[in-house]
Structure formats: C-alpha cells, structure tokens
Amino acid sequence: MARRKSQKRRNKKYQVNNRQLKAKRPYKDTIFRMLYHDKENLLSLYNAVNGRNYTNAEDLQIVTLKNAIYMGMKNDLAFIMDMNLYLYEHQSTYNPNIPLRNLFYIADEYQRLVVQKSLYSTVIQKIPTPRFIVFYNGTKKVDDYNEFRLSSAYENPTDNPDLELRVTMLNVNDGHNLELMEHCRTLKEYAKYVARVRKYVTQNIPLEEAVTRAVDECIEEGILAEFLMKNKAEVIKVSIYEYDKEFEEKKLRKAEYEAGRQDGIEIGRQDGIEIGRQAGIKVGEENVLKRFIEKRLRKGMTLEEIAEDLDEDIVVIQKLINDNSEAI
C-alpha cells in the first residue's frame, strides 16, 4: 500500500496542462488505440513489456497529446509510470522515420511538463526518462525485436552523436514474440483478430464481409469477445478504414514507382530517371488523393470533413476538386 501511494505521488509530480485528455476518440482511431485506451489493458501491456506485476491501473498517468500529428501520423499512447515517460505506437506500415517523429512528440510533451517551471533556475529541472516502443503488425517480414536510431538519419554519421533517440520495435503479428504474448492476453488476442481479418481479405472476400466475419468468429471463440461485443459497430468501421487505407497506400507506392519509371524512360536514362521519379511520385500521390476525395464526396462529406479525415490542407483539397471537377 505504501509503495502504491509513493508511486502515485511520484507520477503526479508531472502535472500536464492538458484538459483535453478525456476527449472522445476521433473517427480515425485504430483498433489498437481503442483497445489500450482502457487503463487495465494498458497496464497489462506495460507489465508484459517491462516484466513488472503492477495491479493498480490508476498508477498510470496518461499524458497523450490530443490532435498531435507529426509527419502525417498520430501518436497512440503516452503515459508516465515509474518516473518514465512511455510513448507506445502501433504501426501496420514499416516506418524507419519513427525516431524523428518521436523526437518532435517528446519535445512537445516535455514542454508541457515543465511549462510552469523555470529553465533558468540554478537547480536542474528533473524530467521523466523517455521510453519509445512501436508495436508492429504489418505484412513486411521483420524480426521479433528491432531498433531504430535517430542517428541513422544523419547526413554525417558519427559514432557518438550529441543527440540520439532509440526506438524499440516489437513484431506483434500472430506467432511472433511468444513470451510477450503469453504475458499479455489482450495483445495475443489482438494479433489473432488481425490475422483472422487478413486471412479472409487474402481470400478475395469483400472487405466489409471479411471484417464482419472475423469479428463474429472471434466473439464466438472468445477472442477479445467482451471488447468486440461492446464495440462491434465501431470496430467494424475502424477495421474497414484501416485495411482500406493500407490497401490504398500500397497502390500509391506502386503508382509512384510505375509513374516514375515510365516518365524516366521518356526523359532519359540519367537525369531523366530522377526527374521522372519525382514527377511520378507527385502524379501518383495526387491520383490516389483524388480517389480518396471522390469516395468521401460520394458519402456526402463536406470539404472541411474531407480535409480533416485525410489530414490534408483544405486549400489542397479544394484545388484537386477544381482541377478534376469533370471526373469528380
């Protein structure tokens, strides 16, 4: 009991001026973020990752920043525990730029944590130690454990960089990191749910039918049953969005490559390849974005809603609509 009170006092030392922490989840949530917004589930995940056995979920101090989006992606969970500041992120797309994104995010976190303190004091201002974890369940084959470093992005590499940030990436696909999965039931069952959806999608079953079938079977088999029954409609909607987005991103990368290759051949074998690649990337991005816009216009979404949904500037959305008015 004494330890629990002491832990709570230490965590509460860092008071974040951030009233919006209890805000409702936005449409572009993920199943992972929905699942671990529950403090009990988050504590179970924390215990499994860190080899701990805490039982009081209230010891977790949630400090996730609302609407903090860096390089087009939102941080999933941020919390303080044991005087450490943890940034937990779920990714279904392999992204080696995560250290740079986390650098931006942690700077914002620290700015809020010390907002009422003087940085010109003669006494050192203590801050919680950062820990960066990515839970990866994409289709690219990776090891169970990976590490990304900010220094890998430096133009001039050095053995001892003045600024370093390390991110641990854990492969949480079904069949990977078995010991971790055995210590966190929700993570293990989440991996099984994702595998079930992918199984049916690869069988060319329509996406909505594949997701609905996976949800119903998981409920029947006791896989995330309580969570899925409670949030069934939202889970289906979010899962469809996640997999539709993943599919469109794959098409985008293919379009970028193909358009760049074709234009490069036409322009020339040397400079033309690079010029064509860049032009192709732009064409590919715009074409996919136009398809996204067209889908949402058909759903009756407003210009503002489309811009918010796609994390894109409203001026860009309007320009693409005007440029492609006949097709849209």
What does this entry show, briefly?
By secondary structure, the chain is an alpha/beta fold.
Written account of the structure:
By secondary structure, the protein is of the alpha/beta class. 52% of the residues lie in helices and 12% in strands. It is built from twelve helices and eight strands. The chain has helices at 2-11, 31-36, 39-50, 98-113, 178-182, 185-201, 207-221, 225-230, 232-267, 271-298, 303-310, 314-323; strands at 61-62, 69-70, 73-74, 77-81, 84-91, 129-136, 145-149, 166-171. Strands 1-4-5-6-8-7 form a six-stranded mixed β-sheet. β5, α4 (98-113) and β6 (129-136) form a beta-alpha-beta unit. The longest helix has 36 residues, at 232-267. It is globular, with a radius of gyration of 22 Å.
Distinctive features:
12 helices, 328 residues, single chain, alpha/beta, six-stranded mixed beta sheet
Tally of individual helices: 12
Strand order in the largest sheet? 1-4-5-6-8-7
Helix content: 40-55%
Nearest-integer average pLDDT: 81
Structural class: alpha/beta
Radius of gyration of CA atoms, rounded to a whole number: 22 Å
Characterize the overall form. Answer: globular
**Low-confidence parts:** 17-28
Strand content: 5-15%
Distance between the termini: 63 Å
User: What's the number of extended β-strand segments?
Assistant: 8
- Largest pleated sheet: 6 strands, mixed
SSE ordering? HHHEEEEEHEEEHHHHHHHH
Reconstruct the topology from this structure:
Layout: H1 2-11, H2 31-36, H3 39-50, E1 61-62, E2 69-70, E3 73-74, E4 77-81, E5 84-91, H4 98-113, E6 129-136, E7 145-149, E8 166-171, H5 178-182, H6 185-201, H7 207-221, H8 225-230, H9 232-267, H10 271-298, H11 303-310, H12 314-323
